[in-house]
């Protein structure tokens, strides 16, 4: 099957965009840019998937005194409006073949910890491998957390992994820079320029 590829859209949900409970600056613009990317390049991918942070009772992932590194305000509560995909992502969702939800009962930053919303309930690694995918582009929110963890897992699972930085938004400059260094050291390709809050 050659070098089949997939686009992984990470956590482009209302709570991670402006007006959400854990708003990342640039989130709504990233949602729109991802829809434009899918419109222009969606046909280049053999699959397009999305991940979603989906919390029921994630323990100390939620805090009333969050440090915004390991603990966070309440966000992406399962079935709630904050967990819904941002409206700017709606055009791209037409191309999305499966959604991988994660984090029901504990923090789960990587989409590879999720399960598909279809009958298979497959892990992301299995779902991609079953379709002969060997290359992935990773985009979404947040560069320094769930994009980072998803891209590191993708590379670790053997996928040739690229993060399209212009289609990501980060929580903070310092953690985003650290994430980019860590990604490069892991062999993940970085393409474009990051959008960072501060
Ligand atoms: C995320 C913080 C908490 C993310 C998820 O999607 O990057 N960040 N939960
Ligand atoms: Zn979360």
CATH architecture assignment = 3-Layer(aba) Sandwich
Q: Helix and strand string, N-terminal first?
A: EHEHEEHEHEHEE
**Overall mean confidence score, pLDDT:** 96
Distance from N terminus to C terminus (CA atoms, Å) equals: 43 Å
Taking all Cα atoms into account, the compactness measure Rg is 15 Å
Total number of helical segments? Answer: 5
Describe the structure.
It is a single chain. This protein has 198 residues and is of the alpha/beta class. It has a single domain (4-196), classed as Isochorismatase-like (Rossmann fold), CATH 3.40.50. The chain is built from 5 helices and 8 strands; from the N terminus they run E-H-E-H-E-E-H-E-H-E-H-E-E. Helix 4 packs parallel to helix 5. The longest helix is centred in the first third of the chain and has 15 residues, at 27-41. It is globular. The N and C termini lie far apart (43 Å). The mean pLDDT is 96. It binds pyrazine-2-carboxylic acid and zinc ion. This is nicotinamidase. Pathway: Cofactor biosynthesis; nicotinate biosynthesis; nicotinate from nicotinamide: step 1/1. Keywords: Hydrolase, Metal-binding, Pyridine nucleotide biosynthesis. Its EC number is 3.5.1.19.
Task: Give me some keywords for this one.
binds pyrazine-2-carboxylic acid; Isochorismatase-like_sf; nicotinamidase; binds zinc ion; 198 residues; single chain; globular; Isochorismatase_Nicotinamidase; pyridine nucleotide biosynthesis; alpha/beta; Rossmann fold; EC 3.5.1.19; eight-stranded mixed β-sheet
Write the layout of secondary structure elements.
Layout lengths: L3 E7 L16 H15 L5 E7 L36 H4 L4 E5 L12 E2 L7 H7 L2 E9 L1 H14 L3 E11 L2 H13 L3 E3 L3 E2 L2
Parallel strand pairs: 1-2, 1-5, 2-3, 5-6, 6-7, 6-8
Antiparallel strand pairs: 3-4
The structure holds pyrazine-2-carboxylic acid and zinc ion.
Pyrazine-2-carboxylic acid binds next to helix 4.
EC number: 3.5.1.19
Family: Belongs to the isochorismatase family.
Pathway: Cofactor biosynthesis; nicotinate biosynthesis; nicotinate from nicotinamide: step 1/1
């Amino acid at each position: 099957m050659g070098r089949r590829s997939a686009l992984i859209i990470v956590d482009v949900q209302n709570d991670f965009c402006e007006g959400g409970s854990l708003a990342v600056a640039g989130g709504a613009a990233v949602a729109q840019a991802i829809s434009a990317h899918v419109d222009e390049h969606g046909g280049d991918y053999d699959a397009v998937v999305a991940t979603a942070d989906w919390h029921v009772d994630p323990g100390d992932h939620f805090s009333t005194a969050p440090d915004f590194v390991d603990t966070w305000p309440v966000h992406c509560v399962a079935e709630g409006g904050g967990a819904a995909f941002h409206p700017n992502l709606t055009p791209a969702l037409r191309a999305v073949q499966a959604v991988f939800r994660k984090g029901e009962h504990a923090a789960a930053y990587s989409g590879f910890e999720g399960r598909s919303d279809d009958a298979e309930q497959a892990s992301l690694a299995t779902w991609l491998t079953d379709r002969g995918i060997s290359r992935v582009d990773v985009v979404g929110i947040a560069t320094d957390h769930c994009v980072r963890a998803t891209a590191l897992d993708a590379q670790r699972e053997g996928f040739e992994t690229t993060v399209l930085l212009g289609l990501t938004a980060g929580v903070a400059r310092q953690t985003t820079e650290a994430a980019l260094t860590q990604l490069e050291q892991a062999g993940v390709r970085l393409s474009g320029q990051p959008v960072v809050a501060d």
